[in-house]
Fold:
Amino acid sequence: MRLTVHTDYALRLLIHLAAIPPGERITIAAVAAAYGIPKNHLTKVAHRLGLAGYVATLRGKGGGLRLARPMAAINLGAVVRETEPDIALAPCFAARSRSCPILPACDLVGILREAEQAFLAVLDRHSLADLVSRKSVLRHLLTAAPA
Structure:
């Protein structure tokens, strides 16, 4: 299983927002600088997480990002499902790509689907709170990151 860069950035953004002190906001530019990732990509990620209700965005002076839900209410499996448009492990999983000649007799599809479900089941058992048990260390690392 390989997650897209979009999902990686989404999880990083959520971790960063969970690590900042409650009530504070942070800009996309600051998060992008802390991780050394492109601001324009992170903007798309923040927008999507905002639409999904995970991130609150405030524009203008004093604006920025903050978590829209408590950390414990942000399920990692749900975030991955939201940010991965097509989580299929193999091309034959996609309904639009049923071109494999052995598909009607292939047992690999069932095994891979079981593996996908197991992967998501592990993520479903965890929340954002599980990723930030060492907030002070995270804060230090994120503020010490080279821009």
